[in-house]
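Chapter review: from sequence to fold.
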Amino acid sequence: FFLWLCCITEVGAQQLYYEDFFKGGVSGAAVYNFLNSDPPEDTIEVYIEPGSTIRKAFLVVSHRNFAHTGSPNFIVQDRFDMTFNGTTIPLSQSMAQTVFSRPYGVSDFDIVNRNFVFDVTDLVDASTTSYPLQPTNNIIWIDGSAEPLDCYMHYYLLVMYEHPDMETVNICVHLNDQDMFLFNDYALSGLNPMDLTTDVGLSIVQNSGGAGGPSDYGVILINGALLSDSIGAGEQGSWGDFYYQSGTLHGLGDDIANNTMFEEDALSVINTYLDDNTGYVLSWSHVTPPGYKSNQFHQFYTVYQTSCAPFEHSLTPDTSACIGDTVTLHATGGISYAWTPAAGLSCTDCPSPSFVMDSTHNYSVRISNNDSCGVTRSVRIDSLPNPTIAALDFQAITCGLSDGAVEFIPGDWGNIAPMSYAINNEGFVNTPTFSGGAITDTLFSIQNGLGCRYDTLVYFPVVNSAVAIFEVTPLTGVVPFTALLSDYSTNTEGTDWYVNGIYQGSSLNSYAVDTSGVYTFTLHAWEYDSSCVDTASVSILAIKELIIPTAFTPNGDAANDVWELGNLDASYPGHTVRVFNRLGNVLYESAVGAYDSNPWDGTEKGSPLPVGSYYYIIDLGNGDKPLTGTVSIILD
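The token string follows.
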């Protein structure tokens, strides 16, 4: 054969999904179904020693999904059903224990692989060794023109049975979670100690998918020594059917319990390859043609006799939780604990870690006792969908009353009957409509039949029926004067009046203004409750009388040398002043609102003007008609 040598080797530990030891035996066997549009029922044949009791049984399903970047494409439906021993079991991609990928070699294909584990202990009986299985169909072309094709491949039944007359057997179930390349090393380490004087058995579930045919195969080494030079040749992949008890590995069907693997026979006794009794490294490399690259390892089953003594232990059973819930897991019986994966867990070496539910999670824990032996258990926490609120249909509250209403309109996601509703945590009810005083709070909650809830904080619309409106005349006045107020408010039962923030009483018709400045009148009006006020404000300007002298004496004696316009800047901030001679020529013009800073001194461009009368125009800047007249320059 020709070994392809140009690609990267990937090294990584596999997920130890399950490890257990007990007095008894283990049996495993599989059926295969791939790219079959109408899969027939098949039968899985295992061995169970007479007189045994079932300790645990798993059905492990391998799945393969093509991801196609061109067109047409595969669409894999999310859920299908299989039937095992007369019981329907749902299959959904979200239920996968591990996921790993593999470049397909054809440029526009990748392959995504998954492992699913189902506890079928209650469906297995110690007196029965044949178990019917109806595989599922699930691939559909993107254009819908092709018939459904099956992409769930191997259905591997692993049965652990207890027998009081047998030695202690140790079983390790590793699920591949390492992406595959042309070279891969799988580190299966940290296991309970192996008795190397008896058989150490290895069964592999590996898929070729039929892509390469007889020439599409791989090479397996253990700790660097050749175990197989033709694993996976053929269209159905390879797997090992076996049973193990009393220190001896036995092949089932056409699998042989010898020290090698060959083509579809993926069963071997590996003692001679081991240099450590707590683990080993399995290496795989792809053989020509390199373009196929279709061989994927899904599971590794290592079974052997051990000196470990069984001990009592427990783990939280598989459960479910709502998105956002805090979930606490509990393991007992060990002196140390190691949880994986670590992501999201509050601790990884404690017996009871917690995490916040954000999706479906699979966790494994190694529970070790005082002789460094341990068991590995896994727990699955399925995510339950939270309900959604599409809208809240409000009838607004009239402030001071309890006449509002609200109706919950559920969204499309997570709304599983029976639905219930609550406001401000006052208890869930089955009606989506609330009215009266109960709706004045703003925490709205919806709960589905799974017990999952969604909360949202919304400000409930409130309508104030009172409308505060009033007028003040005049808006500008020369002090002293009286401001007159006219109240046009509607829907009011009570009012409060303020002038410049000072309370004036419940009514106000007039107000005496005797000093200059801005006066702000404010009205608070309400109908049902004094807390439900509507507010209106009006400001007026009180000014001093404008003083315009008719003459001045710019003779330099420091008395009456400029034309002083009293109260102009203070009362009319937008004013301008211009002075003309008899010919209409502008002799002087002030800056806007700043006459006092540069008053007219009887000159034109610094030159004194003769005695006489001059015309002026004062624009107050408030829209009123400008003031006009004459001013005289006189000399004493």
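Two observations follow directly from the output. Residues 1-12, 68-76, 141-150, 209-213 have pLDDT under 50 and may be disordered. The two ends are 132 Å apart (CA to CA).
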